[in-house]
Every structure is written in C-alpha cells, then in structure tokens.
Amino acid sequence: MPEAITAATRLCGIVLHPAGHTRSPAMHNAAFAAAGIDAAYIAFDIPPDDLPDAIAGVRTLGLAQIAVSIPHKEAVMKLIDDVDEEARRIGAVNTVTRREDKLVGSNTDWIGSNRALERETELAGKRAVVLGAGGAARAVVFGLIEKGAEVHVLNRTVDRAERLAQQLGAKAAGPIDELADLDHDILVNTTSVGLRSDESPVPATALREGSVVMDAVYDPETTRLLRDAADRGARPLGGKWMLIYQAAAQFETWTGVDAPIEVLEHAFDAAGR
Ligand code: ATR
C-alpha cells in the first residue's frame, strides 16, 4: 500500500465468499509498498448472486486487477471479455486483469503450484501423484503436465478423478488407497483433508523416502501429512508456498515487475499471527 492514497492510486482486490480471513490483502499491499507501486488492495465479500454486479463494478470503477477466489472461479468466466488458453483448459479463472478497456481472465494457481514444487525438485520426467479432483487438483495437474511430469490422479470419488485425468491428459486415475502401490517422486494433496484438523488423506506408510510432499492445505501450516512426510524421510512443502507464488504471478501479470517473494512470505506469516 502507498504511504498516502491519492487520486493516482490504483485499486486492486479479491472477490470471495465468505471473506473470512484472507491473507491476500496483506501480501499484495506489502508487495506494492516494497516495489514502490502506487496501488491498494482490499477484500470484497461477494455472495454468488452478486458476482455479476461486482464485476460490473470492477469495470465501472476501473479496478486494475481482481483476484477471484472460492466460490467464484468458474462463474466469473462468463462475465469477463476474454479468458486465456491455460485458464480455459483448467476451467477456472483466479485472476482478472484490466487490459485497456477489457477484463482478461487467467489462472495463476498452476503457476503457484509449479513454482512451489520447483523449490524442491525439477518437474520434467518426474512421477507425480495428485490427491483430489476438485478445482485445486485441476490447476495442480495442469501445471505438472505442462512441465512434463507424469501424473496419477487419486480421489475418493474415482469417476471424478477419471474425468479430470482424461480431460487434462494425466496418465491414470484411481482410488486414494492406490498410493501405497505407486512409485512416485512427488505427492500433492489437494483434498480438504487436514484443513483445521489433524487428519491425513493417506496413511504414513504410503509415503516414500526422498519424495517431495506438498500439501495445498496451509491451515494449519504444518499438517499431519507434512509431519508424516518428514518422519518418513520425504521432503515436506507447505501450502503457503503455493499461495505465495500464485500471488507473485498475479502481481507480475499486472505490474510486469518481478514479485518480491521474501516480502510476500513475511506478510503471509505476519497475517497468520
Ligand atoms: P477445491 O475446488 O478446493 O479443490 P472441491 O471441488 O470441493 O474443492 O474438492 C474437494 C476435494 O477434496 C475432492 O477431491 C474431494 O473428494 P470427492 O471428489 O470424493 O468429494 C476431497 N475430499 C473432501 N473431503 C474428503 C474426505 N473426507 N476424504 C477424502 N477426500 C475428501
């Protein structure tokens, strides 16, 4: 956020419902300040029925960029002027950026997932398993395949996993208990198991020594899955990194400037205290 909001300050924000506790304003405002960008970022709690009016407001008020979160990532696609190729294939938009007088949708969740994983490993040629078949899974699977990884999708509801695998070009799909039989280098949990609970989606015995285990759940920051991974000699990677890197990609999409990752991390940590 700039020191003073003036007539020149550009406005960005996030639309989501319920607003709850989002760390996005803290992260983006810290990044704007660090990069000397005269912009402010706020959260808008928008129930589903109000999304069309909210997007009309984005147009009329001239907002520069809007992050789109749950439950609006699919519905927003029909309300904007253009959706880029990646977001169309994933089937979800998490970022709407003004380009002259047009609102253009993109998806940075897959970039966030890839950049987070790349802190620990290359992706090309790696064997990856993704747990879950919802919106988060679609972005993670898309990202892994873009980078040349081979992906197995495992989900409680197997036909959902099969559909996702077929649409995005994953190698195979199956039930979650198949993990124990699958040699893998990378495991990503995109299910909600572990969110504000001490459960893991998989038994610790199914985890492989040396593999990278990323949990999209970031509340709590160290989930049961990540603790089990560390105990088994795997390399745990917290969901906060996915969130930080997807925010970084949003920042870069609008500003054209490299995002200050340490600043985003610090703001993420401070907002959770
Ligand atoms: P998102 O868009 O955040 O990915 P979602 O579409 O609701 O959310 O998907 C939630 C995922 O968590 C799904 O893969 C869901 O499995 P189902 O497709 O079988 O519903 C998974 N999930 C939720 N609760 C679960 C549980 N108790 N055990 C296993 N998987 C669970």
Q: Which short descriptors sum up this protein?
A:
binds 2'-monophosphoadenosine-5'-diphosphate, 273 residues, 6-stranded mixed β-sheet, 9 helices, alpha/beta, Rossmann fold, 2 domains, 6-stranded parallel β-sheet
Describe this structure in words.
This protein is globular. It has nine helices and twelve strands. The two termini are 20 Å apart. Helix 1 packs antiparallel against helix 9 (261-271). Strand 8 (150-154), helix 6 (158-168) and strand 9 form a beta-alpha-beta unit. The longest helix is centred in the last third of the chain and has 16 residues, at 240-255. With 273 residues, the chain is an alpha/beta fold. It folds into two domains: 10-107 and 242-271, Rossmann fold, CATH 3.40.50.10860; 111-238, 3-Layer(aba) Sandwich (Rossmann fold), CATH 3.40.50. Helices cover 35% and strands 20% of the residues. 2'-monophosphoadenosine-5'-diphosphate (ATR) binds next to helix 5.
Mean pLDDT, nearest integer?
97
In the CATH classification, which architecture of the largest domain applies?
Answer: 3-Layer(aba) Sandwich
What is the terminal-to-terminal distance?
A: 20 Å
| Count of domains | 2
Sheet-strand content, in percent, reads: 15-25%
Order of helices and strands: EHEHEEHEEHEHEHEEEHEHH
Structural class: alpha/beta
What is the molecular shape? globular
The biggest sheet amounts to:
6 strands, mixed
- Strand order, main sheet: write it out: 2-1-3-5-6-4
Q: What's the number of helices?
A: 9
Distinct ligands, ions and cofactors found in the model: 2'-monophosphoadenosine-5'-diphosphate
Low-confidence stretches: none
Could you tell me the number of beta strands?
12
CATH topology of the largest domain: Rossmann fold
The Cα radius of gyration reads 19 Å
The fourth-level CATH homologous superfamily of the largest domain is Leucine Dehydrogenase, chain A, domain 1
The share of residues in helices is: 25-40%
